[in-house]
Structures are given as C-alpha cells and as structure tokens.
UniProtKB/TrEMBL annotation:
Signal peptide: none annotated. It comes from the Bacteria. GO terms for molecular function: ethanolamine kinase activity. GO terms for cellular component: cytoplasm. It comes from Sulfitobacter geojensis. GO terms for biological process: phosphatidylethanolamine biosynthetic process. This is Phosphotransferase family protein. PANTHER family: CHOLINE/ETHANOALAMINE KINASE (PTHR22603), ETHANOLAMINE KINASE (PTHR22603:SF66). Pfam families: Choline_kinase.
Length: 291
C-alpha cells in the first residue's frame, strides 16, 4: 500500500471515518483492501480496465450488482471509476484443498448450477460474452504483436484450439463466473459466495466446470461426479466436450499468464505461473487425445 492509495481510500464518499486499512492477498489484477468504518467492514477493489485481458469494469460492476441482488455475492456499496466497494464477508476463503474436500465439492457444484440458472434474471443491462476460443485467439494475436518470448509456441496452440472447439460443439449459454479459482469461493458456514466478476459473462457451463477442475486439481473421479451432479445424467455423455473445454480453460490461463509477463505491474512471478500452467495444459491435452 502506498500513501497515495491510502489517501484515495480515505477520501471515498461512502466512508465517514475509515480506519484499519489493510491489504488483502490473492489479487492478480487488482489492489484489494479491507477497511473498517464504524462497526462495519468493507472490501475496496482498486483497478481500471485491462485491455490486454478484456477486463471492462462496467461489465464487472453489472455482474457484481446482479450477483449481489441474487444472493451470490456481497453487496455493492459504492462504485466510481477504478473503485468498487463491497461489504466484507466474515467467511473462509477456500484453498484448492478445500475445493477438493468431499464435503465441499458438491456444495460448490450446486452453487455454480444456481448461478447458471438464476443470475441472468437479475441483470439490468447488457454484459459481455466470454467465448474462450475467441479469447485465446485474441491473446495469441496480442502476444505475437508484443514480441512475446513465447511466440514460437503459439502456432501449435492455435492448431490445438481449432480441434478443441470442434470437440466442444454446440453449447447451451449461461452467465458464467469464468474464473473459478479457489480464492474466489467463500464459505460463511451457511452458504457459499462467489467473488470477483472481472471475467464474468455469457459462456458455456462447461467452462466454469472445467475451470473449477483445472484450477483446483480435481481427480477424474471427482470430475465425473461433478458432471453427473450438474447435468443429472451419465457423465460419459459430456466427457469429451468437457475434456476439450478443460484444455481450452488451461490454454486460456497459460496465455493469460504469458500476457501478464509483459503487461502486469504487480509483483507476481508470472514466468513461473506460465510454466506451471503450460505443464498442466500439456498433461490435459494428452488426456484429451485418449478420449
């Protein structure tokens, strides 16, 4: 936290006497702070549009507001350019191990299904689509233009992407969260909450399920149980399309990290994150080839 950030937060019109301003960990594209004002606590998210990642804050705001009204996310208290203020939840932030916990995973899948069924009804303005195949091709074009050190890997990835899109085939469309990292799932002991809607938008439900699995190292047994629960049918019916979307999700995370290596100003080791996700993608593609 810099003095400029602290001053910006203390001047926000939604606060009367902001105190105890502390940084919250976990943000890869924002500065997140916890603030006490009187007997209430709030989260302040500081971040502007991120063109290279397709992040538009008006879209995040629209989805955050809809998710708040629907009861999936904390209340939006205040917003202005580059600032989003939310109620602070007294809740546990999940880890990857928490997501894999047999007591939690069915709850998470049920919550995702509720979001997919209900959230669109609470939107009051248009929002973006998040079509991962287009997202990945856009990342590749930007990486070539920016002279990324990973340029030589892009042609093979794009050829694989064509095959993956064909395997996914026709889709249903829902409002997806599209960034189901463990840290974006909170448990208050009664219900689960989803936070951080930067990448939210219309998408296939398979992307959230695939992202949940790939981001949290679910076993194949857990993945099949997840599909069976979500679709209420034999998981084999969706397995190939799901496996293709899982590869697509991992490719997106890899390209996202490659792009962040160039553009991000946050103190994050994106090179290591790229390497980690490339290994995951290579493994997932090998598994997909066997489907």
């Amino acid at each position: 936290m810099t003095p400029e950030i602290i001053e910006k937060v203390t001047r926000l019109s939604c606060f009367e006497n902001p105190q105890d301003i502390v940084a919250l960990g976990g943000g890869l594209t924002n500065v997140n702070l916890r603030v006490r004002d009187g007997d209430q606590q709030y989260v302040v998210r500081l971040g502007t549009d991120i063109a290279e990642h397709g992040v538009m804050r008006w879209n995040e705001l629209a989805l955050s507001q809809a998710a708040s009204v629907a009861g999936f996310s904390p209340k939006v208290v205040h917003h202005e350019t580059g600032v989003l203020v939310l109620e602070f939840l007294n809740a546990q932030t999940f880890t990857e191990a928490d997501v894999r916990n047999p007591a939690n995973l069915p709850r998470i899948v049920s919550r995702i299904a509720q979001v997919h069924r209900d959230l669109a009804d609470h939107l009051t303005q248009p929002v973006l689509a998040f079509w991962p195949f287009q997202v990945n091709r856009t990342y590749a074009a930007r990486l070539r233009a920016d002279g990324s050190r990973h340029t030589s890997a892009l042609p093979a990835m794009l050829a694989q992407l064509d095959q993956l899109q064909s395997a996914v085939g026709q889709i249903d469309m829902v409002i997806g969260h599209n960034d189901l990292l463990a840290a974006n799932i909170l448990d208050d002991g009664d219900k689960l909450w989803l936070i951080d809607w930067e990448y939210g938008g219309f998408n296939s439900p398979l992307f959230d399920l695939a992202g949940l699995a790939s981001n949290n190292a679910l076993s194949e047994t857990q993945e099949r149980a997840m599909l069976s629960q979500y679709f209420e049918t034999d998981p084999d019916k969706h397995w190939r399309a799901y496996s293709a979307m899982k590869c697509t999700s991992l490719m997106r995370e890899t390209l996202w990290s490659m792009t962040s290596e160039i553009h991000s100003e946050l103190d994050v080791d994106y090179a290591s994150y790229t390497s980690e996700n490339m290994d995951r993608l290579t493994s997932a593609l090998a598994d997909f080839a066997q489907t």
